[in-house]
Write a structure and sequence with these properties.
By secondary structure, the protein is mainly α. The protein contains nine helices and no strands. Helix 1 packs across helix 2 and helix 1 packs across helix 3. It starts with 11 loop residues before the first helix and ends in an 8-residue tail after the last helix. The relative contact order is 0.10.
Length: 209
Amino acid sequence: MQTSGGGNTLSESEIVEAALRVVRQDGVEKLSMRRLSRELGVSPMAPYYYVADKRELLDLVATAALTGLRTPPPESGPWQVRLRDLIDQIDDKLRKHPGLGDVLIEQMLGKQLDLIDAVMRILFDAGFDDRTVLSAYATIHTYLFGRTRVNPRGAGALADTPLPESVARAVKHMSDLRGKYSYDFGMDVLISGLEAQLVRRGDGHVSSN
């Protein structure tokens, strides 16, 4: 058995916690098996006794990072409120673990089945049919995990480029893309769009009372 620097046998939970520390400090892109071994104070090969490769490590990290989410019960409010509450909780986890969204965007139906189930149950409660629930979840998934790939720092490349008047007016607010304003705007658009789908289809109700 591999042991840590203190002579104790490594456990999977120790490995995952060490990986989470790396992610919180430096982001997912800096997490490697070698970096993990340094964090644990063990030989570079030690983590492989417990984790087959970086892909498995990232799966474990994603699952651990998303623990503790509270699924809003039906009696806590209308579906719009419950959906927003749940997604806000996920967003908070993503902000605490830089780069985690990049891991999750690639596996829409990955190992976070409890989380996916919680979102889909709220959508079913809202009155969406089976086909629309899947499309709605895919839209939420793409926004929630994929929006971190929009890089406002890339706007620096436009500094010396003559911009159309409309573009110049808008890009002054590029920094908003990583902040609460942009997140709230996107969530308002998403939930309003889902409400509009229900009205158009006549599949459910949109009451928020």
